[in-house]
Amino acid sequence: SQTIHQWPATLVQPVGSPLSLECTVEGTSNPNLYWYRQAAGRGLQLLFYSVGIGQISSEVPQNLSASRPQDRQFILSSKKLLLSDSGFYLCAWSLAPGQGAPEQYFGPGTRLTVT
Amino acid sequence: QKEVEQDPGPLSVPEGAIVSLNCTYSNSAFQYFMWYRQYSRKGPELLMYTYSSGNKEDGRFTAQVDKSSKYISLFIRDSQPSDSATYLCAIEAHQRTALIFGKGTTLSVSS
Hints:
Chain A is built from no helices and 11 strands. Chain A has strands at residues 3-7, 10-13, 19-26, 32-38, 44-52, 55-58, 64-70, 73-78, 87-94, 105-106, 110-114. The model of chain A has no long low-confidence stretch (mean pLDDT 92). Chain B is globular. The chains are: A mainly beta (115), B mainly beta (111).
């Protein structure tokens, strides 16, 4: 069966500090990978998605970036955090088009507080 | 018009009640419709998905799609306190690159 991991679970960082959140998926190959942010009282905001190694699409202009160095690894980064970057960050995976239905499966999330 | 609209609630019901959660969407081309449950401080968990129109049942949960009205529903029978969570609808976006999520409805079931 497939499993998705995210770490760290919680993070408190000062404004201006760098960020690196990691997500890995087990039990599947060539998945689509996604980063979402969920701010308090707001819905899920898609930040980035990836259909393959090194292929990243950005949905929202911001000071965040994403990378996919391996097939089942997805990293969210920032060089300098802003207060507005606080939120609940979720990684998700889905099967690639043509391999099945498009439902996404989410990791446990990282709660980021920028102080 | 937003692509997916969902009443945020909160919705409070007594244990044993039938719960109806709903979303409307704007693009008639959408084909896949999903419901997620999210407990506080946890990632969303896929409950059910349906393709095109019709109903799908899984235990106490029934998902219903009415494409003519662009309306999707999730019914929970015999609701339990453990059903207290936020429920998000999601619809497949074009070209399978992402899902469009509603903002979620917060449900509280009291014993």
